[in-house]
Amino acid sequence: MSLPRIALIGCGNMGRSLAGGLIQAGWSADALHGIDPEPEQREKLKSQTGISVTADGTAAVSRADVVVLAVKPQGMRDTVRELAEALRQYRPLVITVAAGVRIESIQSWIGAPVPLVRAMPNTPALLGAGATGLYCTADVTAAQRQLAERILGAVGIVQWVEHEALLDVITALSGSGPAYFFLVMEGLIRAGVELGLSPAQALTLTVQTALGAARMAAAGVADPADLRRQVTSPGGTTEEGVRILEENGLQEILVRAVQAARQRSEELARQFGEG
Ligand SMILES: NC(=O)c1ccc[n+]([C@@H]2O[C@H](COP(=O)([O-])OP(=O)(O)OC[C@H]3O[C@@H](n4cnc5c(N)ncnc54)[C@H](OP(=O)(O)O)[C@@H]3O)[C@@H](O)[C@H]2O)c1
Fold first, then answer.
1. What is the pLDDT of residues 164-191, one digit of tens each?
2. Fewest Cβ atoms nearer than 10 Å: which of 38, 97, 107, 154?
3. CATH fold of 177-267, please?
4. Atom of ligand 1 nearest to the CA of 126
């Protein structure tokens, strides 16, 4: 059985990551096609992955089983309108990875309901370590859901949600989440330096600690709260550090941060949907 043909509209960071991830996962380069108006972007994708590239989105859509929309949110309306006729005629599965662009907006730009999956990946997807939220319209078949999972699964883990509104929560949690962890790392590095370590030592120790903690949590043997208790001996150093974090409301601060980011995600979705 031949592999479904995928047209990647937008050969930027996300388009290249998806193509690279799919090829690493064993997808044939012949079944992938990149589309971008920028010759440089096309060349980069072609040289990195060996897939064919073109500037002509409409022709690519006519041959595709899946069309992945990987252009900037601000460019989605014009891009979708350019492809609308071909999308209506050939009805491929459409997967959008654009942050904050709602299914309702995309359907209205296409001008007819087509099977649509909305994905919210995050930046670590560029290294194959992404976390992606997925939501789909009711007319997406089980086989198409599996296909979407394979495509986004090529750059990390995926989680389906039952309501599109939950993608705003995913945007605020895992979409913006890398920045929260970077901020925590910045604080730990600063602490190490202020207490006498060299910046390079503080950086190396902090990053490795974050990686180690994430790997322990990802192993799934215990949840983060249990892991924290296990590494916090009564009367020890960790207990003292954790006490300061808890007394100063670290968890409440994180909850507020995610709430604020979700609200911003909703505002941006309204903005991108105009017109
Ligand atoms: N990068 C991430 O970590 C990340 C994470 C989550 C979600 N996303 C989403 O992924 C999408 C792409 O992000 P990105 O970082 O890959 O952006 P990017 O690097 O700017 O790539 C987008 C590419 O699409 C091209 N393009 C614009 N209009 C087009 C059209 N009509 N047909 C074909 N290609 C077109 C752009 O060309 P021009 O430069 O000429 O406009 C650009 O090369 C965004 O919507 C973003 O929200 C990205």
1. 999 999 999 999 999 999 999 999 999 9
2. 38
3. ProC C-terminal domain-like fold (1.10.3730)
4. 3
